[in-house]
Amino acid sequence: MEATCEVCGQHKEGVAKNKKTGLETCRSCYREHNQPKHYCILCFQLAPAGFITEDKKAVCAGCVAKMRNRGWTIEEALKFPKVFNPKVRVRHRQKTKNYPVHGGLCEVCGHEKKDVNKNRKTGKMTCYGCYVRTHCPKEPCVLCGKLKRVAARSNGRPACKGCLEHKICREICAVCCKKKRVQTRNSEGRAICPRCAEKANKKKAS
Prior knowledge:
3-stranded antiparallel sheet
């Protein structure tokens, strides 16, 4: 039945009375203004839920359609996040297979955010900002001398994020001979980049 939507003012089909607002509302206006939105655990976008998983996580309608086309379950879909959002950064997900990135409600600040994970120390769902404020200490940076959150350490000395990203902190790595950020130094005092330092740590562990 056609009627006039009291929100957009257009004459459309599928216009019905919204129980919350009491206005005659078309489907597109309801989806845009009134339909509850959640962060999708596949594409990390805020959108109406296509369905809710057993652990109360939302999957948007677009991702549900992609899953159906491929015949995937939610467990299979979580292994391929770039299929649903090519721009998503999966570096953290790859490093911690049993600690995936989810969007949802942060139990510390009470806000819905994209980067909510379960904090292993507290057991609470915590966003990145709350995790940094709670667990990353502030110490005087060895480079600028200001009291800031520690982003990395060089031989045990703290350095802030701003100084690490500055060009002055880049030196020729003694291993790969490329100009990169200094992660640590060898016994001779020469710079070692993060990648080469990580490789050296893996060799020691094995």
